[in-house]
Amino acid sequence: MDVRNYGAIITCSQMEEKIPLMPEVVKKEYKGIRILGMCRSSYLFALYLFCYLIFLFGGASFFTWVEEPEERATRVRVRTAIQKFYIDNPNVTDNDLEELITEIVKASNRGVSAIKNATGELNWSFGQSLFFASTVVTTIGYGHVTPLSRTGKIFCMVYAMVGIPLTLVLLSALVERLLVPTVGLLQWLNSRLGHLYQPFNIRIMHLLIMVLFLLVFFLLLPAAAFAVIEPEWDYLDSIYYCFISLTTIGLGDYIPGDSADQPYRPLYKIATTCYLFMGITIMMLTLAVFYDIPQLNLGLLFAVNEDVNSEKVRLASSATELHYGASTLTPQNEENTHRQVVRVRSRRNDSPSPEEPGPRGIP
């Protein structure tokens, strides 16, 4: 009787009594370290959740402590300006001024500025619209310009539902291709420094190189360019904008090209769009390198199967395999995989049949 399954050829006679074809699944109860009645991973996750909540509350407290005085001072300046306006224009009623301020605020929330707006370019020119579309599909979402019509709002939702997955696929494909030279750099570091440092130390060095590349070419240098081009931005504001944008936070308090007298505004918006796509791609590449180092991936501490995690850490500490993304590269760059053919014979019939090839009966 011949049984062929998944590339392995098994020739047997009454093999059901000798060797089971499929191993039995044995359920093993987890017997790891337990703390307060919980397994180690659950205890660490609960501790991490508690620390994360403290982190959130601490951040909220700090923002309140720093920003609340600034808000109170702004409120005082607004009230002072309104009182001065009443003194200079005694014929203006409260209702007229309130209506004017309301219209200005509504327009500002929709990206229409009342300051020199007549000389400025429309927010929905092609360059501006391309910039808006890129912020939608990359989930940055500055919020400084939003669709005004009902048709535009419906189209924006449909466009985002289709565009966000397409953008994720595009960015993932770009990262996969950029991983080839990135892994090549890691292999070069291993060949040059493998006799001096441990594999983990070399991977940390490789990660630092990637972080340095991201900081210099996509934060520091672009921030210097924005500080020169934007008249109201200093260098700190420019670095703040680059970081908020590349991390897709997108607060919308700083938008390039929104000054009233900005020259070549559409071209400037298109160049900024290209910068955002390239910067987010390099950010994802750096995160891929970071997450592929198990010793730095805290998420492995909370997994239930700790044996698999320890095996990942062991492999990461070895120089035999380099894992990045969905691909696995070995230092020998093996391109072919060999399939092993296993032949099992029954003890009752050790001699090969005339039709069957074997060690003594090769045709």
Automatic annotation (TrEMBL):
Keyword set includes Cell wall biogenesis/degradation: no
Keyword Nucleotidyltransferase part of the UniProt annotation: no
Matches recorded under Gene3D superfamilies: 1.10.287.70
UniProt-annotated stretches for the region Disordered: 328-363
GO cellular component, one term: perikaryon
Annotated TM spans: 43-66, 126-145, 157-180, 200-226, 238-255, 267-291
Protein name, as recorded: Potassium channel subfamily K member 1
